[in-house]
Amino acid sequence: MTGKVVIVTGANAGIGFETAFNMARRGAKVYLACRDDARGAKAVEEIVSRTGNKHVIYKHLDLASLNSVRSFVEDIKKAEYRVDVLINNAGMTGYGLKKTEDGIVTEMQVNHFGHFLLTVLLVPLLKKSDDARVVVVASTLHRFGSIDFKTINKEATWKIPYYGAIRLYSTSKLCNVLFSNELARRLEGTTVTVNSLHPGHVRTSIYKNLDRVTETIMNFLLSTFFKSAVEGAQTSIYLAAADDLTGTTGRFFEECKEARMSVKAEDEELAEKLWNYSAELVKLKPEEAI
C-alpha cells in the first residue's frame, strides 16, 4: 500500500480506527475522515506514534451535513491528484426520530445518503488510480431491511420502540449493499471496483444511542459474543489491500470470503431506483452524475 492514498470515514474509533491503523502500517497515506475534531486528532497522533508513518491526516467530515461532505471533497481535490481506496466505514444507530439540517433522517443520511454523495463526488479522483477500490461497510442485517420510497424519509416510519431502531439500521445497511452493487455496475470497465461487506458483530460504540432496554441487551451481547474492533476490521482491510481481489467488483464479503447477499440486495431495479432517489435527495448536480 506504500504510496497509495486511502480515505477511511469514521476512523477515530472502532473498526475505522483499526482499518486506518493497518493502512498506515502498510505505508499508505491515510485520511481519517471524522466529525469529532479532538478525537480525530488524537487518533492521528496514536497511529503516527505506533506506525512511524507521518502521512496520516485528519480531515473534518460530518456525514450528517451535505455541505460538510462537499467541503471535504473539495479539500481532497486540492490536496490529491488521485484516491486509491475509499472505505465507507462510518455508521450509527439510535437517532431514528431526528432529521439533519438537510431534512433527511439522520441515521439514513450518515449510513447511506452522506456516503452516497461522498463516493460519487470522489469518483473522478478514484478513476485516476490504476486499481481503485471502494469498500462499503454494510451488515448481514441488510437481510432484514426493506425500502418504501414514500416513507423512508419520514420520522414516523421508525417510531416503533426497539423494532423501529433495528428496522431503520437494517434498511440503511440494505441501502449500502444496493448502492455498492449499482455503483459497481455503473463503473464497470473502469479501474474502480466496488464491494460491500459484513464486518461481523463488533464491540464498538455504534450502539450507544439506543433506548435503554435495547442498549442493555446489546451490551450483554457485546461482552459475550461479539468480535473485537481489530477482528471486525479484517474484511475491510482484505478488500482494500488484497492483490487477489484486483478486478473483483459488485460482490458481498464476510470473514474475508465472498458471501451470499440477500435477494433484495440483488434486485437491480430496486438498486437503480435507490440511486435515483438518493441523487435527488442529496441534490446531485447533472454534471456530477455517473
Automatic annotation (TrEMBL):
InterPro entries: NAD(P)-bd_dom_sf (IPR036291), SDR_fam (IPR002347). Keywords: Oxidoreductase. CDD domains: retinol-DH_like_SDR_c_like (cd05327). It comes from the Eukaryota. The keyword rRNA processing does not apply. Gene3D superfamilies: NAD(P)-binding Rossmann-like Domain. GO terms for molecular function: oxidoreductase activity. PANTHER family: PHOSPHATIDYLINOSITOL-GLYCAN BIOSYNTHESIS CLASS F PROTEIN (PTHR43157:SF31), PHOSPHATIDYLINOSITOL-GLYCAN BIOSYNTHESIS CLASS F PROTEIN-RELATED (PTHR43157). This is (diamondback moth) hypothetical protein. It comes from Plutella xylostella (Diamondback moth).
